[in-house]
Design brief:
Elements: E1 3-6, E2 14-17, E3 21-24, E4 30-35, E5 42-48, H1 50-63, H2 68-92
Antiparallel strand pairs: 1-2, 3-4, 4-5
Helix pairs in contact: 1-2
């Protein structure tokens, strides 16, 4: 993975994100993030918990199928996964919603 970005909440310098870090939190929650190499501002990409990770594995397993029914199920599961991830972010960050 290699993505160019700008530290828009810190030093405003451009940098390349080459990897994401994972921090273990309470209750099986994992925070995935990256830091600006210049000012060390931390950006949280997303949070997952055991339920979300299990759902992601199931989605990935369906992704290899060309079956229309499996594709439809995968779409439903992806929507559920996005909803769960948004709810978890709100729970972990105390209710602030940045639109992600």
């Amino acid at each position: 993975m290699s993505v160019s970005t700008i530290c828009d909440e810190g030093c405003t310098q451009e940098f390349t994100v080459t990897s994401l870090e994972i921090e273990q939190m309470n209750d099986g929650v994992e925070k995935t993030y990256f830091d600006c190499p210049h000012c060390k501002k931390r950006y949280v990409a997303y949070y997952t918990d055991p339920e979300i990770r299990k759902l992601q594995d199931e989605i990935n397993n369906l992704g290899y199928s060309k079956n229309v029914i499996d594709s439809t199920i995968a779409e439903i599961m992806i929507k559920r996964n996005k909803k769960l991830m948004k709810e978890l972010r709100l729970k972990v960050e105390g209710g602030k919603d940045d639109g992600q």
